Amino acid sequence: MLGAWLVLLGGLALGCRGERAFLTRADDSTGRCTYSFTVASPVEAACPNAGGGPELRAELASLAARLSRLESRERGAGGSGPRGVEVGGARDSQQAASAGGLEDAYSELLRAKSRLEEEKGRLELENAELRRRLESSAQEIARLRATRCSPGGEEPDREAPRVPGKASRWNPQPLTYQELQSERTEIPASRMLEETALSRPGTEDSGCGELVWVGEPVVFGRADSIAGKYGVWMKDPEPVSPFTRETTWRVDTVGTEVRQLFQYEAAEQLAQGYPAKVHILPRPLESNGAVIYRGGLFFQPRRSHAVARYDLRTEAITAEKEIPGAGYHGQYPYAWGGYTDIDLAVDETGLWVIYSTEKARGAIILSKLDPETLEIRQTWETNIRKRGVANSFIICGTLYTISSYSAPNATINFAYNTTTGTSRALSIPFENRFRYLSMVDYNPTERQLFAWDSFNMVTYPVRLSQV
Q1: Are residues 310 and 293 in contact, defined by beta-carbon separation less than 8 angstroms?
Q2: How far, in Å, CA of 5 to CA of 11, rounded?
Q3: pLDDT of the residue at 331
Q4: What is the pLDDT of residue 24?
Q5: How far apart are CA 95 and CA 382, in angstroms?
Q6: 145 vs 158: CA distance, rounded Å
Q7: Regarding predicted confidence, which is higher, 445 or 49?
Q8: Which of 222-231, 315-324, 363-372, 414-423 has the lowest mean pLDDT?
Q9: For the chain, does the N or the C end have fewer beta carbons within 10 angstroms?
Q10: pLDDT for res 90
């Protein structure tokens, strides 16, 4: 490259008068390389073209600057060798940089491979743990099945005697005591289709059948205050004058001093929220187990294990009777609570009370009551735990229980027939639309269930099969 510059400078020198010019290079006292350019004329103005003097000086100064930069670059490269050496050095530097990048990428790949191997090992350990748990669960299921069945494969005796001795009311009941032992009864579709006229709302037929279907809830009214989160609403299936079958009754049961009984001429008034009259009960009632029957309100007075009859015409309590041993104020309520220890019910056969005792260890007991004197006519003890169900009602002498008060898709899960004294498991769909079912009663005249579901007063159509 320096040789090319020398030739160029020589050509410039010869261009002035055609005389010879000289360029010399030497180190100065500071060790730097200096270039000297001489021409034959003693002054630059001796050239024929006087106007070219300043341009030549500027061009020479530019060339000198470039030569100086080239010299500095050569020294930085380690000498004044040819340009090819510089190019080769740059290539070597680029190749070294490229090799370093490849080594870094290779190291990163090795690290990623190590991480993947660690993750694979962890997943294998988790898989082994899951297999172990599945095997353990299968063994537990097999053990439970073996304990529920006898060695011969037959079900254990349903009438096995209870373990003697007094059990605590808070202890869970033994397996032999649970309703899960009851035999499941399948109802054929043809039997479901053979409905009687009584299974449709509003009929006058007094025949009976088994419950096979519950329809979707229909909302009749809604409470407008917190006192109506749960309560009870009713119609009298056998009213006395001046009341009719359309007269509707309601009690909001939130609070400690529940005494107000709201009277409506029809269900439409209930929906509008305008009662025709408000009865003030002589004694506060407990929870929402009350019913209206034959001109009287039957309820449990607060903090007692008794049942009282309030006459709707005279507005006075005409009868009161204790239920022997019955739990009260939270001893044996339904699953949702609410002090629902004593629950009254009405069906085609009369007035019932649903409760439990310490002797029965929390199992549901049914007693048939005389509606005038409240004397107990007959009692049945079931093997269905009261705390294990959300609510219950009676149709044609058969107790039916509901599995959950909050699950949207609950079921009618058990039935106890007082005629045969037997129980069976069921799975009839039941919808909790508003997720807080606190009251369910059956009206034998309308053939519907009346319910209270989180501020909402609703009805459910039912269907009965032909006996």
Answers
A1: no
A2: 10
A3: 95
A4: 72
A5: 92
A6: 16
A7: 445
A8: 222-231
A9: C
A10: 57
Instruction: Read off the pLDDT of residues 305-322 as tens digits, 9 standing for 90 and up.
Output: 999 999 999 999 999 999
Lowest mean pLDDT of 107-121, 144-158, 379-393, 420-434, name the range.
144-158
Q: Which residues pair with 334 in a beta bridge?
A: 337
Q: What b/e string do you get for 288-321 counting C-beta neighbours within 10 Å, with b at 16 or more?
A: bbbbbbbbbbbbbbbebbbbbbbebeeeebebeb
- Cα–Cα distance between 337 and 373 in angstroms, integer? 29
Please give the pLDDT value at position 126.
77
Band (pLDDT 50/70/90 cuts) for residue 405 is very high
Phi and psi at residue 412, to the nearest 5°: -80, 110
Higher pLDDT, 43 or 273: 273
Please tell me the predicted confidence (pLDDT) of residue 111: 83
The CA–CA distances, whole Å, from 435 to 290, 406, 449, 453, 454 equal 22, 4, 17, 7, 7
- Report CA torsion sign: 264, 267, 269, 271: positive
Gap between the Cα atoms of 8 and 1, Å rounded: 11
* pLDDT digit string, tens, across residues 71-114: 676 565 554 444 444 445 555 566 666 667 777 877 888 888 88
- Identify the three-state secondary structure at position 314: coil
Output phi, psi for 349, to 5 deg: -100, -10
d(C-alpha 92, C-alpha 70), whole Å: 21
Cα separation, 355 vs 14, whole angstroms: 132
Strand-by-strand arrangement of the 248-252 sheet: 231-235, 248-252, 260-264, 277-280
Rounded distance, CA 170 to CA 217, Å?
Answer: 35
Q: Is the pLDDT of residue 132 over 50?
A: yes
H, E, C per residue of 82-126: CHHHHHHHHHHHHHHHHHHHHHHHHHHHHHHHHHHHHHHHHHHHH
What region does 73 belong to: left with phi over 0, alpha with psi -120 to 50, or beta? alpha
User: What sign results for the dihedral spanned by CA atoms 42, 47, 48, 50?
Assistant: negative
Determine the residue type at 351. Answer: L
Provide long-range contacts, Cβ within 8 A and 24+ apart, for 251-258. 251/285, 251/288, 251/290, 252/223, 252/225, 252/227, 252/228, 253/285, 253/287, 253/288, 253/338, 254/226, 254/227, 254/228, 254/229, 254/230, 255/227, 256/284, 256/302, 257/284, 258/284, 258/285, 258/286, 258/302
> DSSP per residue over 142-193, as a string?
HHHHHHHS-TTSPPPPTTPPPPSSPPPTTSPPPGGGSGGGSPB----HHHHH
DSSP 467: -
More confidently predicted of 437 and 273: 437
